[in-house]
Amino acid sequence: MLRLSFFISLMCLVRSDTDEECPSFTKLSFHSAVVGTGLNVKLMLYTRRNPTCAQAINSTALGNLNVTKKTTFIVHGFRPTGSPPVWIGDLVEGLLSVEDMNVVVVDWNRGATTVIYNHASNKTRKVAIVLKEFIDQMLAGEASLDDIYMIGVSLGAHIAGFVGKMYDGQLGRITGLDPAGPLFNGKPPEDRLDPGDAQFIDVIHSDIDALGYKEPLGNIDFYPNGGLDQPGCPQTILGGMQYFKCDHQRSVYLYLSSLRENCTITAYPCDSYRDYRNGKCVSCGTPQTQSCPILGYYADNWKDYLREKDPPMTKAFFDTAEEKPFCIYHYFVDIITWNKNIRRGSITIKLRDKAGSTTESKINHEPATFQKYHQVSLLARFNQDLDKVAAISLEFSTGSVIGPKYKLRILRMKLRSLAHPERPQLCRYDLVLMENVETVFQPILCSKLQM
Fold this sequence. Notes:
alpha/beta; Rossmann fold; Lipoxygenase-1; 2 domains; ten-stranded mixed sheet; elongated; disordered N terminus; Lipase_LIPH; lipid metabolism; disulfide bond
């Protein structure tokens, strides 16, 4: 009996120690959101030594934080139901997988949890002050502002901006993941995230017509799918809560995809989404030594190049797939026609490899204009990147339900990969497309004279 009593006491002690050693993100109920919560900021440290078991830290106890390494702060936003962000664990794991760093989760759920959005918004500067006090202690321990990286989601992006302002823009980097728009749209720079708040700022705008901020806020501002409706998100209120938050959250999941080796999302600096879709910006306007910007963690590869611009800011656009990891593969479809009359319409192109895998791109965002002996270059976006294409199909459509069916007489079609320009370009000569009829053919290598 004595042994049993001792064993139970030991188990309780172990459990108590575990709870104390591995603090978790604050979980609150919807009731808490209704009655409101006072602000309390918890800081939880993760490193490669403790990747799954957080260590509670604060401005008087830095714990195992190594000030000689990069420190990345993750700052969440508004929490209308009190639940922890579902992406926190994946983001911590992903960051630690790509670099040996300190990852500090900033848990201000007590304060962010409320059904009244402006109550949470009003606490953002107070959260920033807490973080300033903590970073001051890091600096006293000989940390460098160059090594401070803040990832802010929604309201968290503006919190990161407020911290950056208190250090006169000397923080190493801020990433804003769909910075909050309501109550911040139209505000002056001192009241929101601003390009001067850090040495480098990259922003992903995924919900500019609702919860996100529309205008540029960083050195490079990424607009997936134009920053509006994200593929795979519900288009009607029948989608429930996902209808309201899916577009907004997509910025986080796109960033997460950059931490995985199987997906590198390339973006294209451009004046507008329309120009990008029309293939006007795929060269990135850079010298041959500089590749196009990459979304997410490695976006700062463009830092030095942007410094040469005046002002050092640019907008970049790209499209995504509906599902993780969201990568899209870009090709140009160059078409020269010999119709006597002008034809306007859209093209659907399908690719198939020898194994039977297929991928399709509908180039129908706006009608293309085909004139005799004029080359039209259409930007095609595929969910898969087929290395060796065995068959191609083309379908031409004017979009007209009634009326005559037209033919598109193709003198030459050429397919070329943007992601892999070294790949052989594929061609087909002398082809006639009947409207709304899929025409399948085997491509051949383009003549060197045509390259």
